[in-house]
């Protein structure tokens, strides 16, 4: 039978081996897509709570806000996991989430200012495409930079 110290030493050595093998792999870093998704979830949760005529500062309003926020978060995580299971890489998933948020807001903003539905849909679509391209390029360039710094450092 092994002593407890020997078991801890063996566990630490195996963890150190696994960690050393993972150094060459790029680390996950925060992207604009995930950051803005969190902000939009907070915004949508508060907007939906207010539209349901609940005050966020009072008891029921706070509970409704938390339930809606958690629901939207879980749906977003589920969608992200499904995109991961079908094989989409993390930069593509992040860019898709960000572009899915930006496009409808640009569509609504242009529609409310110009009252031209066709033009607002075109603007929303172009905003989605440009947001996807910019987010993807930013994410992949940051990924290349982090890979270089891991190999150099």
Key features of this structure:
153 residues, mainly alpha, 5 helices, 82% helix, 0% strand, flat
Characterization of this structure:
- This protein has one domain (31-152).
- Helix content is 82%, strand content 0%.
- It has 5 helices and no strands.
- Helix 2 (32-51) packs antiparallel against helix 3 and helix 2 packs across helix 4.
- It starts with a helix and ends with a helix.
- Mean pLDDT is 81; it is low at 26-30.
Structure described in brief:
This protein has about 150 residues and is an all-alpha fold. The protein is built from 5 helices and no strands.
Please tell me the total number of domains.
1
The span between the termini is 42 Å
Main beta-sheet strand count, sense and barrel state:
none
**Structure classification:** mainly alpha
Contiguous low-pLDDT stretches (5 residues minimum) are 26-30
Q: Could you give the order of the helices and strands?
A: HHHHH
Topology, element by element:
Layout (H helix, E strand, L loop, with lengths): L3 H18 L10 H20 L7 H27 L4 H25 L2 H36 L1
């Amino acid at each position: 039978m092994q002593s407890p110290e020997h078991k801890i030493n063996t566990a630490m050595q195996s963890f150190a081996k696994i960690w050393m093998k993972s150094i060459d792999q790029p680390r996950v870093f925060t992207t604009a897509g995930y950051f803005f998704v969190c902000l939009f979830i907070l915004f949508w949760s508060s907007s939906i709570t207010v539209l349901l005529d609940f005050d966020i500062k009072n008891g029921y309003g706070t509970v409704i806000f938390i339930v809606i926020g958690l629901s939207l978060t879980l749906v977003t995580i589920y969608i992200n996991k499904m995109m991961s299971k079908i094989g989409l890489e993390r930069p593509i998933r992040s860019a898709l989430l960000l572009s899915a948020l930006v496009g409808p807001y640009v569509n609504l903003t242009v529609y409310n200012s110009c009252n031209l539905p066709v033009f607002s849909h075109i603007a929303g679509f172009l905003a989605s495409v440009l947001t996807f391209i910019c987010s993807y390029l930013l994410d992949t360039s940051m990924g290349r930079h982090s890979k270089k710094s891991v190999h150099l450092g």
